[in-house]
Amino acid sequence: MPRRPPQSACTASTRALKINKDFADALALQSACLDVLATLEAWRTPFAASKSGAQIEKARHLAPRNPRVLLLDAVAVYDRLKGSAAEKDRALNGFKKATAAFEAERQETEQSPGWGAAEAYVYLGRCYLDRGATLDARDALERALLLAPEFVEARRLMAKITTG
Question: What is the pTM of this model?
């Protein structure tokens, strides 16, 4: 089951969209919140899933290179995986694009973004672990830990690799 985004993130994305309906980061975050809502409350599934798809599509259209949009789009694919090779490839490619976009953004600005880069590398590491690509997973997790040294999930996955 997908993890539930913090309620504050869901509330913040709604508030941000009231101020600017074309704020790609908020659209992508709201899409993630709606995906989780659809999973947790089955009676809302048709509405929430449909609106989630529309929100992430609009975010991708507005900001096709935004790393947080790419990350949340890839997370949605990863969380919906049904096991087919094509879906796994799509998730992996989404995380590769997101991490590349975070690296490009970091080169363009003096300050790195407040959220998303380390998470993108952890998801990339998970995808590699799912495929049995341990060295690639380790590289991705090391990058996550460089960005966020106390990231518990990155440390847990790294321990899984190093202890076999």
Answer: 0.77
